[in-house]
Automatic annotation (TrEMBL):
This is Flavodoxin. Gene3D superfamilies: 3.40.50.360. It comes from Rhodococcus spelaei. It comes from the Bacteria. GO terms for molecular function: FMN binding; menaquinone-dependent protoporphyrinogen oxidase activity. Residues 5-151 form the Flavodoxin-like domain. Pfam families: Flavodoxin_5 (PF12724). One of its GO terms (biological process) is heme biosynthetic process.
Length: 158
């Protein structure tokens, strides 16, 4: 069985947590906030997932700080996931940027998942938010399928 851990910051509406819980169930992984994780324990896992909502075109500061403070790791498979009002714009590849930082720490990002989610950022709050009801059943199914593919891709360390 793959030993997996999911590190998730979900502070706005719990949107990303819904995605993390589905992935966690598929991978038999605990879902923990960055402040609950001892970075030195990551090396005990075959697969580490990191995710948050997107805030001002970046992953949440708590997740970014967790990655920044990580000590160098033995080669470990990883994945990224996020929820946001909009898709990642081509001029601001925040997933790629976090992926690079993870790679510098020894974590190799196998894949990235993103879906739209309820968004009440300032201008949208005035109209009651956008993407109401997201993540929906289709998003959760997509997260499930994504995690199944990861599980098949990840060979447990002996
Ligand atoms: C202050 C603030 C800033 C946000 N900035 C962005 C953004 O830059 N791009 C985007 O697509 N969504 C943005 N959003 C929407 C969130 O990414 C979205 O609601 C996300 O699902 C929140 O995840 P969470 O509920 O797991 O915290 C923003 C929301 C808030 C409240």
């Amino acid at each position: 069985m793959v030993r997996a851990l999911i590190v998730c910051t979900s502070v706005s509406h719990g949107n990303t947590r819904k995605i993390a819980d589905v992935m966690g169930a598929v991978l038999s992984a605990s879902v923990m906030a960055p402040e609950e994780v001892d970075p030195t324990e990551l090396q005990g896992y075959d697969l580490v997932g990191l995710g948050s909502g997107i805030f001002q075109m970046s992953f949440h500061p708590q997740l970014r700080e967790f990655v920044r403070a990580l000590p160098p790791q033995p080669a470990t498979a990883a994945f990224l996931f996020s929820t946001s009002g909009f898709s990642e714009p081509p001029f601001r590849r925040y997933s790629r940027s976090l992926e690079r930082q993870l790679e510098q720490k020894g974590l190799k990002v196998l894949d990235t998942f993103s879906c739209r989610a309820f968004d009440t950022y300032k201008p949208f709050k005035l109209v009651g938010g956008i993407r109401k009801g997201r993540p929906d059943i289709d998003d959760l199914q997509a997260a499930h399928t994504f995690a199944e593919h990861l599980r098949m891709q990840t060979i447990p360390a002996s």
